[in-house]
Design a protein that fits this description.
Elements: H1 3-20, E1 33-36, E2 43-47, H2 58-72, E3 81-83, H3 86-89, E4 103-105, H4 106-114, H5 119-130, H6 133-139
Antiparallel strand pairs: 1-2, 3-4
Length: 140
């Protein structure tokens, strides 16, 4: 048997095993996870997918959608500046670390929310677009 072929055997066996290994063999440190194969629809990983959990940063995706809709509709502009409220400034978790009372451009807030995952940026955008976080949630 050629050396190249025998060297390939362990790799091909590994790949075959990896592709056909059972779903329950996968492990993750995530509290919840759900992965499906796009083409077949087969569930590859289901770890507590039915458990309720906070939306975490996934809510920033919808916040971004509403902000971009406001931009598209001419309600706000990228150069427009919003003030950083005490509520936004006090946000815990991921932050842009904007000074209390500072004025920040919408464009920078979008970057801070989507790239840095800044909770303070998300709240500042919500307040700037709708007047309050609560009113923004109603717009969602």
């Amino acid at each position: 048997m050629p050396k190249a072929f025998t060297a390939f055997l362990p790799l091909s066996f590994f790949l075959l095993f990896a592709v056909t290994s059972p779903v329950w063999a996968m492990e993750t440190t995530a509290k919840q996870a759900y992965i499906i194969d796009y083409e077949t629809g087969q569930v590859l990983l289901d770890k507590d997918a039915g458990e309720k959990m906070p939306t975490s940063s996934m809510s920033k995706t919808l916040t971004g959608y509403v902000v971009f809709k406001a931009l598209d509709g001419g309600k706000i502009t990228l150069d427009q500046e919003f003030p950083v409220s005490e509520k936004a400034w006090r946000m815990e978790g991921s932050k842009m670390f904007m000074p209390l009372g500072s004025m920040v451009k919408v464009e920078d807030l979008i970057r801070g929310m989507l790239i840095q995952s800044g909770n303070d940026a998300a709240v500042t955008l919500a307040e700037g677009v709708a007047g309050s976080e609560e009113a923004f949630v109603q717009e969602m």
